[in-house]
Design a protein that fits this description.
Blueprint lengths: L26 E9 L5 E10 L6 E11 L1 H12 L8 H22 L10 E5 L3 E5 L2 E6 L4 H8 L2 E4 L1 H7 L9 H8 L6 E6 L2 E7 L12 E7 L1 H10 L21 H8 L19 H14 L3 H23 L8 E5 L6 H10 L4 E4 L7 H17 L7 H4 L9 E3 L3 H11 L4 H7 L1
Parallel strand pairs: 1-4, 4-7, 8-11, 11-12
Antiparallel strand pairs: 1-2, 2-3, 5-6, 7-13, 8-9, 9-10
Helix pairs in contact: 1-2, 2-3, 5-11, 6-9, 7-9, 9-10
Length: 433
């Protein structure tokens, strides 16, 4: 047990939170675990949450990051691509993940700050396995072996958030929209969180003091991101170039307006909200025609990369104007994802969004590695408070819904969670378990 003293609670707007000096406001410790989309890395965050409902303050006490190894990543890739070796391979993957998750959780608990209680629960998010077919409702299976993780740690486990949203009539995500608002909201001005990852995803964070703020939260896929840039780099270099570091090749090319209009004609860009795909946006089919056009006209890989960057920016600009209420009031865009290191992409974003500051999300006290894990912890906290995290305006669910599934830990952990959930009704507790 460490004798380090906990740092002050920092509010999302900066400064010491008023909750820090008020003992009557509940403070809870939770652990968040997030498995990366390719199952290659596990992010963990020990989180202290002060307050309740929409008034909470969130602070990361400690964090950990661990590679998951080629065995786990390879097994997940085979399952994701439907290459089953045996019917029990999914159970084996979940058990292997639980072993790593328990070790990382144990490492964090060994460093638990003096004065902090043990976590009430572990919130777990992972990419899961999805069945996605046209004209068929999506189906999802969590990768979390919650029973094993609870048994190894003795801590309650809350997971399967996407499954709960699907059961409520939603598309399964993005389930982190409300937690992101709680973590990153500003008191008086709306913000946008822009994930410039393999798929560009946008989350609109209304001002905390706005009327019906939670009902105005939006989160959706904009379109392809670095996956498009990486594909073009590999395809037109015969595999010699895996990606364009910092956009250095793209900046040497020229924008081809004809190609941008061709790409924007794809049906995807006309789809209404909710618009989210758990495995991301993969534009490879649409790109084949572009490749033929490039071969006929002599466009270079630099031209294609330059044009693809302009396409990404154009899609972001269009969707902000189309979907974001009062987008003129947005003065700040928080950035995460690999594309945030792309100089050309950021320069063009700055041109099309004049007067809007582009800043890394880490400026709010949450680095990129810990943010997803913190979201998992906040999802668990919302479940414990029995507050709906499933937002119909984000996922298309028929009504706001409680997200999560509780797997009990030790007897002491169960008693602690039940005390935190009091005064829950019997029906609420039955739905929670």
């Amino acid at each position: 047990m460490s004798d380090r003293q906990p740092p002050p609670v920092i509010s999302p707007q900066g400064g010491v939170s008023p909750f820090a000096m008020r003992e009557e406001v509940p403070t809870r410790t939770l652990l968040g675990l997030h498995v990366a989309s390719d199952c290659r890395r596990l992010e963990a965050a020990l989180v202290q949450i002060t307050g309740q409902g929409s008034q909470v303050e969130v602070r990361i006490v400690d964090q950990e990051s661990s590679p998951l190894g080629e065995t786990i990543a390879g097994r997940f890739a085979r399952l994701r691509d439907s290459h089953f070796e045996s019917p029990g391979e999914m159970a084996l993957l979940a058990a292997e993940l639980a072993e790593v998750q328990a070790k990382v959780a144990g490492d964090l608990l060994d460093r638990l700050l003096a004065g902090l209680p043990p976590p009430l629960a572990i919130g777990v998010t992972d990419p899961g396995l999805w069945h996605l077919r046209r004209n068929h409702p999506p189906c999802y299976a969590s990768l979390c072996d919650a029973a094993q993780l609870a048994a190894r740690t003795g801590i309650n486990v809350i997971d399967a958030f996407a499954a709960a949203d699907l059961a409520a009539g939603g598309i399964g995500g993005p389930v982190g929209a409300l937690p992101l608002w709680l973590v990153l909201r500003d008191a008086s001005r709306p913000r946008i969180l822009l994930d410039l990852g393999r798929t560009v995803r946008l989350t609109y964070l209304p001002a905390a003091n706005a009327p019906r703020a939670i009902g105005s939260i939006l989160a959706f896929d904009v379109g392809p991101g670095t996956s498009l840039l990486d594909y073009l780099a590999r395809r037109f270099s015969d595999g010699k170039i895996e990606f364009d570091p910092g956009g250095r090749l793209a900046v040497q090319g020229r924008k081809i307006d004809k190609l941008i209009e061709h790409w924007l004609d794809a049906p995807y860009f006309r789809e209404p909200l909710p618009r989210w795909n758990p495995v991301g946006v993969h534009p490879y089919e649409e790109l084949e025609e572009s490749i033929r056009m490039a071969a006929e006209t002599g466009w270079s890989v630099r031209d294609l990369l330059c044009t693809a960057n302009h396409l990404i920016v154009r899609c972001i600009e269009r969707d902000i104007e189309r979907w974001i209420p009062a987008h003129e009031d947005v003065a700040e865009i928080l950035l995460v994802g690999g594309g945030a290191q792309n100089g050309l992409l950021l320069a063009e974003l700055g041109k099309c969004l004049p007067g809007v500051k582009l800043v890394p999300a880490s400026s709010q006290g949450f680095d990129e590695m810990s943010l997803d894990a913190a979201v998992a912890a906040v999802l668990a906290a919302l479940f414990i408070e029995r507050r709906t995290a499933g937002l119909p305006n984000v996922t298309g669910a028929t009504s706001p819904s409680l997200l999560g599934r509780w797997t009990p830990g030790s007897t002491a952990a169960i008693e602690g969670l039940l005390r935190a959930m009091a005064p829950a009704t019997a029906d609420e507790l039955r739905r929670a378990v």
